[in-house]
Write a structure and sequence with these properties.
15% helix
């Protein structure tokens, strides 16, 4: 499964192939989301 995303300001964009699909993905733990309590 191919996934893509970007940082909250859009300066960094990425895509990655996940062998296990969404089961191998992990939650975002960046400071912006941690401070705001977002997922």
């Amino acid at each position: 499964m191919k996934m893509s995303g970007q940082c909250h300001c859009g300066a960094v964009v990425f895509s990655a192939g996940l062998k296990g699909g969404l089961a191998s993905a992990r939650r975002c733990d960046c400071s912006l989301f941690s401070v705001r309590g977002a997922v």
